[in-house]
Amino acid sequence: MATLGAVFGACGIAGGSDRPIVYVSEADGNPDVYAIDAETGESEPVKRGPGSEFAPSWSGDGERLAYVVSSEGNRDVIIVEYDGAGAELSVSPDNDDGVGNEGSPLWNADGDRLAYVSERNGQSDVYVSTLDEDGQGDIVTTRITSEESRELLGDWSPDGQWLVFSRQGGDDEVQGLWLRNPAGVNLLRLTDGADSDPVWSPDGDAIAFVRDDLGNNDIYLLKPEDGEDWRGKVVEERWLNSPEEDHSPAWAPDGDILAFVTDRDGNLEIYTADANEDEPPQRLTINEASDTQPVWSPDGDRIAFVTDLFGETEILVMDADGTNQQRLTHNDAKDHSPDW
Fold first, then answer.
1. pTM of the model
2. Basic and acidic residues bias located where (predicted)?
3. 196 and 210 Cβ atoms separated by less than 8 Å
4. Are 182 and 176 in contact (CB under 8 A)?
5. Cα distance from N-terminal residue to C-terminal residue, the chain
6. From edge to edge, which strands make up the β-sheet containing 314-319?
7. How far apart are CA 292 and CA 143, in angstroms?
8. Which of 65, 85, 210, 264 is the most buried (most CB within 10 A)?
9. 117 with 152: CB under 8 angstroms?
């Protein structure tokens, strides 16, 4: 396997905050994970195989990458080091049937814990795998949920003390947003609505999420009433109060701005807005296509996104104010799911 460090070492592209964008491309028929330099557009596959690879996720320090490999009816989460040190790791247990069906890998900020969803016990639950210091030893895994409802991962708190996730299906007693600590002990219910896609602000003081209000998606903000303790009362507010569909919130690294996707112009476009609503929303993309999946660069200066303007979906980057838009991928296949 060509490691990320080997792919970009000759170009002088480092990991960490200068890491490339990883994304999924179907250029070779199957979905594969690629890495691309946001400056030059040079790209290489992280791994090619007979199966499918998808859902790439950078660790917070940019030194590790996790992604999902689907092969022979099973899904497995794989971890690789940017610099190529050591072998790739699998979070799946060694069991007789070999079926875990893992997905949705999500790193904590320190890059030593990986949360994901697994069906290894016959239902969709959230697990956390802890790596040792060099990331090459035994993986200690904890199952942190066990309800019969479907659970979808949201985000880690910046301090690594909590995971926020949503529950779907079941009855009104379980749906909504929940918090769980990584040890699988404390469990807190935050909301009881048809809520999804929770993302934590970089300072840990707020969670943005999407609520289905009678068929219309809106972005809400959730905050502790005392400003810091999520174990106490929480307060929710509807953000922007738009009659149109708003979804896919993404915090800027400084926590002052949210990027999001909206159909307020008749099609899906990317906007940004001040988290405190001090300024009106700013439209970043202007076309008749669908522009989606905004992700921020580590320094907050740019945004990568996906558009179908050219036919199949492609990866583009732009400055945080929407200027200097640059197309990175050029092929007749689907490119999507960027992470930076």
1. 0.92
2. 329-340
3. yes
4. no
5. 21
6. 291-296, 302-307, 314-319, 326-327
7. 32
8. 65
9. yes
The pLDDT value given to residue 183: 87
- Per the CB < 8 A criterion, the answer to whether 275 and 206 are in contact is yes
Give the CA distances from residue 111 to residues 79, 198, 241, 259, in Å, rounded to whole numbers and listed in that order: 11, 20, 36, 24
CB 61 within 8 A of CB 112: no
Neighbours of 26 (CB within 10 A): 18
Q: State phi, psi for 75 to the nearest 5 degrees.
A: -115, 135
Query: What six digits make up the tokens of 241?
Result: 């109060």
> In sequence order, what are the residues at sequence separation of 6 or more whose Cβ sits closer than 8 angstroms to the Cβ of residue 295?
21, 250, 303, 304, 305, 338, 339, 340
Task: With beta carbons less than 8 A apart as the criterion, state whether 157 and 204 touch.
Answer: yes
pLDDT in tens, 271-300: 999 999 888 999 999 999 999 999 999 999
CA distance 297 to 285: 17
> Which helix or strand (DSSP H or E) is residue 87 part of?
none
Half-sphere exposure of 278 (CA within 13 A, CB side): 5
167 contact partners, CB below 8 Å, separation of at least 6? 147, 149, 150, 151, 152, 174, 175, 176, 178
3-state SS, residue 18: helix
Q: Dump pLDDT digits (tens) for 3-51.
A: 555 555 544 455 556 799 999 999 988 999 999 999 999 999 987 778 8
Rounded-to-integer distance, Cα 64 and Cα 199, Å: 21
Nearest alpha-carbon partner for 68 in 57, 59, 60, 58: 57
Q: What is d(CA 58, CA 105) in angstroms, rounded to the nearest whole number?
A: 9
Tokens 């917070």 belong to which residue?
60
